[in-house]
Amino acid sequence: MTCSQPLFSLARLVCAPEDTKAIGSTNNLCRGVQDVLTAQCEVIQHAPSLEALIARIGLKPNRHGALLYGERGALNMVSQGGMSQHPMQLAPALIRLSQMDLRSYLELGVDSGWTLAIVTAYLKRFGLDVSTGVDLTFERISATTRHILKRMHVALVPRNKLVESSIDLCFIDAGHALQDLIDDYHDMQARCHNMMFHDVSDFDCWRNAGGGPARFWAGLKGRVRRERWTEFVSQPDIYPPTFGIGLLFEPPALALNATALRTVAEPAGARGVSRQSIKLCLGGGR
Prior knowledge:
38% of the residues lie in helices and 12% in strands. It is globular and about 55 Å long. The protein contains 13 helices and seven strands. It has a single domain, classed as Rossmann fold (3-Layer(aba) Sandwich). The chain has helices spanning 8-14, 20-23, 28-38, 41-44, 47-57, 65-74, 87-97, 114-124, 143-151, 178-188, 203-208, 212-221, 258-261; strands at 104-108, 130-135, 154-158, 169-172, 194-198, 229-232, 245-249. The model has no long low-confidence stretch (mean pLDDT 89). It is α/β, with parallel strands linked by helices. A seven-stranded mixed β-sheet has the order 3-2-1-4-5-7-6, sandwiched between helices. Helix 3 (28-38) packs parallel to helix 8, helix 5 packs across helix 7 and helix 10 (178-188) crosses helix 12 (212-221).
């Protein structure tokens, strides 16, 4: 999909001058969304430049920050809000998404809403029309972030109010227990032309959430042809690995169950990693 020219009109709406008293003229998310909407195409299509832009926006605060983000990444934590992402994973993932002619996007499990805002802003540069955030509750989304999402016409829909629809891309980042992932896959697979999963390299979750997204992704990609999936799992200066993004094209109607997936072994490149992980699912698992 062709990158549009900078969207200056939308950027001005996101952080309009009359709004600065309410949201602050230097709000990280406001500034970050504006940067994504107005940067030149060569910037947002160049992985190192996009990675640096995302890092400047800010990461979600966490008392285990260095274990989660690495020493350098932890320096990008903000006091409130923030994204639970590795910029070096999200940047190439967004660039791959920009090539897919996506008109509709749904994020299941929005937390603070920052990733939802940044992904929406980015994909709008490539023709996105509809963006939806779905969760059990939106209490973690601040008034500032709600304002920014509203300016970009992002709908926030409670999980129990989600209607049947056809969506070009669904980003699954809700409950991180293995059964939660299985349920979300079965629930969303028929709705979503493509599916993306978060925390597919989070081996803390492997130890503490029945395998969590890491075991789910290992089992899922082992059941589909190689050309149907790709992943973004580059890591900063940390070990064991955290986060990770898996992208599945045209998800097949697989009958997955926890019993079968619990027999999935750790990937060869990560064998034994979970034994060195801590007793927390740092990527946000419940």
